[in-house]
# Entry
Amino acid sequence: MNQTRKAALVPCDFFALFILISALNGYICGEDMQFTKIIQTMQKLILSTVLLLALFITGCTQQSGKIFNGTDLTGWNLVLENDTLPGDQVFTVEEGMISVKGAPLGYMYTSEKYRNFTLELEYRWADEASNSGIFFLIEDPTNPFPKGIECQLMAGKAGDLVMLAGADLKEFRLPEGVTERPAFPVIEKAQPSSEKATGEWNKVKISVNEGLIEIRINDVLQNSATSEVKEGHIGLQSEGKEILFRNLVIR
# Structure
């Protein structure tokens, strides 16, 4: 993601050079026609280069949005507690959707790491509302929970932020009267549940910008927090009952 954003600066640099050469051409025009022709040739070459770079970068940007290709789990790694089952029996693709069975406990995560991104996806429960989550800023893909942050999808609590395996968020405070950090610290969602009825599709939007996190469930801002970790893998959890995911897009 960073490489795509940085590369987008290159056409601007070429365009600035084009303007500079154009100004120089105007200054000397009429005094040295041969030099003017050289300048005009350089302008054409720069314009051609800018167009090619723009096409290349557009292709890169479109490719970066394909976190799930809709047909298989290429680009994803599978983790299951105690390796009790082959991963492809728990994480499957059905009609362009990712199906996660919910048992045994585990998760699938991207091979790529992402920084400064917006992740959008939809989820729904296959039958019974249960428990799952979306992991992000995964530092270490440990088993059965990664070191990272979870956007909770447990029914009734979608939008809570859970800190896994020692991960931290600056806004977390111990509840009054509690002296020991819990195994899974939580920053609760800010609004009443914005989830839809069981069986309907819910929209999730997770934005991370230099560690600043925002969570929206069905367009309702449910949480925000700050992480010192600014880059990591993205994951989908298996816990509870079957859940379906579709339309995974990252920008």
Remarks:
- The first strand starts at residue 76 and ends at 80.
- Residues 1-10, 50-63 have pLDDT under 50 and may be disordered.
